[in-house]
What we know:
Chain A is an all-alpha fold.
Amino acid sequence: MRLTECLRDEKEEILRLWMEAVYATYPFDAKGVLRTVSDPFGNPGADMTREAAHALYDAVMGEETTVDGVKGALERFVKLRAVQRDTPSRALGVFHLLKPIMRQRLLPHCTDSGELNGYLAAESRLDSLILLAFDMYMADRETLAESRVKEIRSQHAQLTKWAQAFKKSLLVAG
Amino acid sequence: MAKLPAPQELIASRPPFPGEHWLALKPEFSPGSFCYPAKPDTMERLHMPNPHEWDPAADDWGLPENWEKTLCDAFAERLEKHRSLKLFMDICVRCGACADKCHFFLGTNDPKNMPVLRAELLRSLYRRDHTMLGKLLGKTAGARGWDKSVVKELFYYAYQCTECRRCSLFCPYGIDTAEITMIVRELLHEVGLGTHWIMDPVKNCSFTGNHLGIQPHSFVEIVEMLADDCETVTGIRPKTPFNKKNAEILFITPSGDVFADPGIYTFMGYLLLFHQLDLDYTLSTYASEGGNFGSFTSFNMAKKLNAKMYAEAERLNAKWILGGECGHMWRVINQYMDTYNGPTPANMIPPTSPVTGTVFSNAASTKMVHIAEFTADLIYHNKLKLDPSRNDHIVTTFHDSCNPSRGMGLLDEPRYVLKAVCNNFVEMPENTIREQTFCCGAGSGLNTEEIMELRMRAGMPRGNALRHVQQKFGVNHMACVCAIDRATLPPLANYWAPGVTVSGLHELVANALVMTGEQKRTMDLRQEDLPGVEEDETDAQEGGE
Lengths: 174, 545
């Protein structure tokens, strides 16, 4: 089977396996809801995972795509992982989970049809995507850190203004 | 020779079937997953039981020697006092209708954040001591005993519930999980466990009347500065009446609107609106806080802090109370105030708008009217001259704050006002608004920066809906009627839907309000240039030439 056909045929199964692998990073008793509720607002975590899975697959398999386009599709998922897991490896490691699935489902076909280079190129694209995701993850963590500082300032914004005016009046009065 | 682990091992995927029962899996107290504890000094000054130094990340929380008896007795006492609690403990059939309705569960995917299982943490303790089956069959009947890890678990999950009551909406029996959380928090206070972010405001409210503990003279000066800012924008310096005896209306709002950005602009909106109406009202330095962090502590503390409202209305001889934009303040007023602090002082009468003559019969008992109702009535009777085009640079949506929407049914009034002052209004998806609204993720005293990640995942369903309308309809603003929302939604929006600003309703009202004798508005209340105003002037000049 040629690589392109193989990619098309295996898409649904590979996506399913990857999403299962992502859900397996959550507690067992949460999995049922993640898998079965399809409402994008009633079960946003699963919706984000689905969106990321499709974008990830298309980009890895070499479909026409732009960096901004794929970043946009991964954005919600990366944001979610960035606040759900306490280390970058646990947050972003889920992207690496695609590799064993690809090796199981695609590599034998590619080896048989002599398209190993095509397969290796797909894995390299996955590596690129993981680097992109890492940049996004870091930007999200920076946003969180900035939010803490901004919030502390905002909480007392008017009080600070008042204190500054008070200090100024004291200085004027000598 | 040791080998590096594979990625699968690094991210610690769990086995297909867990080896332990869900109840046996204990939470990990890692930094960012818990709020800082209350200071012993704060707890002592409030006469809270068993004040002590403790660290949530430590093994030993320093519980008092008789901690188990204290908790068992306190639980039994509350079961005796609150028939609703006993009902909530008995009636749940674990149908799971609430399971996926909680924003904390959706954001964390932690099963113990399913409302049914969060309640089960307490219900399992109830079974052991208060049900025949539990006494006889123990664990087989879902019963368990107290131990120190159970106390830690209760703390962990009682502070991962914002008491928003979305789950209650879907419960066929109407179990109010928020009240279960409230009881758990009360129980934990019996052994000296509370959080700083809640107890510090409670202490400040107890001693000086507002969350930050600002003294009366400073409070007045800060409000005066906001009036100065109003003058800069409109050319009109609104009146700032304080502690005025015999004023018809006493106005009480959360103090966050006086101190915190962007709440201050909502407060400026109140001042300008009241000035334009020439309202006979007064602010108070004693009742300088509408918010009630006592309601996140215990029923008694909530009652104590809320008492100042009627006490001040009586002292100042006000006829009724107008309340500002707040969330839990309205839950307390609408749901508990009658029995906490009622009946109202003899000088108070059913609220009647002095501008339209409308009698707010819905507030006949508490004598307190929400400002969204008051303003909606003004607009309905054409008593305000509005220029909504001043808000044309805004495409706004509306976040229903949990307590006013689910706690008191305030759904249409704020929308009516918002549509009158903004030409561009878009609703978020149906199952994320009105009664089904998703919480901001940080209500009930969780809006503290040490749990920012937790807040971002708890607020994810709200952020996700906001992001949807931002991308689909170009929404760049979210209005709300809650001071905690005004504090917590800006970081949430900045994370999930960057570019969306957040404001209170009355900031937008005042931006659109055409006031008698005002100067030409070139900026909004935040002193940001109004788009298009300067160009208009240039056009006019060119046209004149």
